[in-house]
Amino acid sequence: MPININQMSTVVHRLPITKARVNLGELVRRVNRNKEYFILEKDGIAVAGIMGAGELEDYLELRDPKVREHIRKSNIDYMAGRSRAAKDFLAELRVEAAMRKPVKKRPPSK
């Protein structure tokens, strides 16, 4: 039976590992296309989960102490008001890029 875990309509399905083995291709397709999750059970006990590779990589990266420290410092800066809206930052980058003179290419020497 599917379980809704938040408002983004993320769905977690629970199914026996034997059924998952028979339908593995379909499960992977649904994980990839629909961003669904699957919890695989053996004798009614959850033993493994299937999620998208990109999300798994993000999860593993967040376990890195260096990444967690960077996030902690960023949160402190944000709470102290040392941040700006992304649109303002992008506008600043566009101005800087427009101020740069394009490099003229010389014709090849003969």
Description:
The model has no long low-confidence stretch (mean pLDDT 88). The N and C termini lie far apart (74 Å). Strands 1-2-3-4 form a four-stranded mixed sheet. It contains five helices and four strands; from the N terminus they run ββααββααα. The protein has helices at residues 17-22, 24-34, 53-62, 65-79, 86-99, and strands at residues 3-4, 11-16, 37-42, 45-50. Helices cover 51% and strands 18% of the residues. It has 110 residues and is of the alpha+beta class. The chain is elongated.
How would you concisely characterize the structure shown here?
The chain is an alpha+beta fold and 110 residues long.
Output the keywords.
110 residues, alpha+beta, 4 strands, elongated, 5 helices, 4-stranded mixed sheet
Q: Percent helix among the residues? A: 40-55%
Shape: elongated
- The neighbouring-strand order within the major sheet is 1-2-3-4
Overall mean confidence score, pLDDT: 88
Structural class: alpha+beta
**Relative strand content:** 15-25%
**Sheet bearing the most strands, described?**
4 strands, mixed
Measure the end-to-end span.
Answer: 74 Å
Helix segment count? 5
How large is the radius of gyration? 24 Å
Low-confidence spans: none
